């Protein structure tokens, strides 16, 4: 009760040429927001190196070169870009939520990174289901990322874009008593209707969860739109859709939303409003009916291979014909019988 957190939501354009240039924009924005007293700074979906807007306006057969360029500029976790953001968060003494295209060997993932104010990476989560055109670009995440983490600003959770249309994903975070929710959308897509949908979605989550929502969307300049989509009739698909906002647990805007251009919204979050809201309606407490309705979450990290240890030291084991016992050689044997 009485605690206040200053939050920043960053609406920003990427550099479509290099990871290094987009990263520089992130580091500069962290410093600018921190200079305004921000203790929590939220960036748009997959801002590093850039959101794959090309996949929304071009057929898959025509996107190979851009897809490969995204691979070449993608972020590895851990890696140099992650280390740079971690250091910036530490210097700013601010919690940072950043969206990245994560490269894991031969696959890309839509990942959200939460850095604590000390610079520690507290969570890396992957979008559980990429949407529509995104499925040509990213793999799927798993339940291990549906976590709320303790940070310097409180209990923080995050979802990306249309994950907010999955009520069970949202409920998984609500059930972990999320206090601040970081939402990330690409922005500069679909048109004004997308911005309207974003507003409805984030305000509803704030009301239902009884938490603050800090939402950041990306921005594209007219020059960038023309570069991504040379055909003028299709460029309208890359305009509008921006709605950077900060919402209270009562579902209201704490500052006017940002729907055009670049900028940083700043608002003070009165954490006492969480209890004020939940006193009336706590979706995972006194308003829940777990004997009737409950959520089952598989929070295990999924892997393509599970290795079972094999005991090579048994006296009954068959030996190599040359008697070699090189531990670096895996010997496959037929099971008994």
Question: What is the CATH domain class?
Answer: Alpha Beta
> In percent terms, what proportion of residues is strand?
15-25%
CATH second-level architecture? 4-Layer Sandwich
The low-confidence runs, each spanning 5 or more residues with pLDDT under 50, are 318-324
SSE string, helix = H, strand = E?
Answer: EHEHHHEEEEEHEHEHEEH
Q: Which radius of gyration do the C-alpha atoms yield? A: 23 Å
Q: Residue-averaged pLDDT, rounded?
A: 93
Task: Compute the number of structural domains.
Answer: 1
**Going by CATH, what is the homologous superfamily?**
Carbon-nitrogen hydrolase
**Main beta sheet: strand number and arrangement?**
6 strands, mixed
- How many H/I helical runs? 8
Please name the CATH topology: Nitrilase/N-carbamoyl-D-aminoacid amidohydrolase
Q: Report the principal-axis shape.
A: globular
Task: Give the strand order, joined by hyphens, for the main sheet.
Answer: 5-4-3-2-1-11
Portion of residues in helices?
A: 25-40%
In terms of structural class, how would the helical and strand content be classed? alpha/beta
Report, as a whole number of angstroms, the end-to-end distance.
68 Å
What does this structure look like?
The protein is α/β, with parallel strands linked by helices and 337 residues long. The protein has a single domain, classed as Nitrilase/N-carbamoyl-D-aminoacid amidohydrolase (4-Layer Sandwich), CATH 3.60.110.10. The protein contains 8 helices and 11 strands. It has helices at residues 19-35, 54-57, 64-73, 80-92, 167-174, 192-209, 222-228, 272-280; strands at 4-11, 40-42, 95-104, 107-115, 121-126, 149-151, 154-160, 180-185, 212-217, 245-247, 263-270. The protein has a 6-stranded mixed beta sheet with strand order 5-4-3-2-1-11. The protein is globular and about 55 Å long. The model is unreliable at 318-324 (pLDDT under 50). Belongs to the carbon-nitrogen hydrolase superfamily. Nitrilase family. This is Nit6803 family nitriliase. InterPro entries: C-N_Hydrolase, C-N_Hydrolase_sf, Nitrilase, Nitrilase/CN_hydratase_CS, Nitrilases_CHs. Residues 307-337 are annotated as: Disordered.
């Amino acid at each position: 009760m009485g605690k206040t957190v200053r939050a920043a939501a960053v609406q920003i354009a990427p550099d479509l040429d290099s990871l290094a240039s987009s990263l520089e924009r992130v580091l500069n924005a962290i410093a600018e927001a921190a200079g305004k007293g921000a203790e929590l700074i939220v960036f748009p979906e997959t801002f590093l190196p850039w959101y794959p807007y090309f996949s929304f306006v071009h057929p898959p057969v025509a996107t190979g070169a851009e897809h490969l360029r995204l691979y070449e500029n993608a972020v590895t976790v851990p890696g140099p870009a992650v280390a740079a953001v971690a250091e910036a968060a530490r210097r700013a003494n601010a919690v940072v939520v950043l969206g990245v295209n994560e490269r894991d060997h031969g696959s890309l993932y839509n990942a959200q990174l939460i850095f604590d104010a000390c610079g520690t990476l507290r969570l890396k989560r992957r979008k559980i289901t990429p949407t529509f055109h995104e499925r040509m670009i990213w793999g799927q995440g798993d339940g291990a990322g549906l976590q709320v983490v303790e940070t310097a600003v409180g209990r923080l959770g995050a979802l990306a874009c249309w994950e907010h249309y999955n009520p069970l994903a949202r409920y998984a975070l609500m059930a972990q008593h999320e206090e601040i929710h970081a939402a990330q959308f690409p922005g500069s897509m679909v048109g004004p209707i997308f911005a309207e949908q974003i507003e409805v979605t984030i305000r509803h989550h704030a009301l239902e969860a009884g938490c603050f929502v800090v939402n950041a969307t990306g921005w594209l300049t007219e020059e960038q739109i023309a570069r991504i989509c040379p055909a003028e009739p299709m460029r309208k698909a890359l305009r509008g859709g921006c709605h950077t906002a900060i919402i209270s647990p009562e579902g209201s805007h704490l500052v006017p939303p940002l729907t055009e251009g670049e900028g940083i919204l700043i608002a003070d979050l009165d954490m006492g409003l969480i209890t004020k809201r939940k006193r009336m309606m706590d979706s995972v407490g006194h308003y829940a009916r777990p004997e009737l309705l409950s959520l089952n979450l598989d929070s295990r990290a999924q892997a393509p291979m599970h290795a079972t240890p094999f005991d090579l030291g048994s006296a009954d084991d068959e030996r190599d014909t040359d008697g070699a016992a090189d531990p670096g050689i895996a010997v496959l044997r037929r099971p008994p019988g």
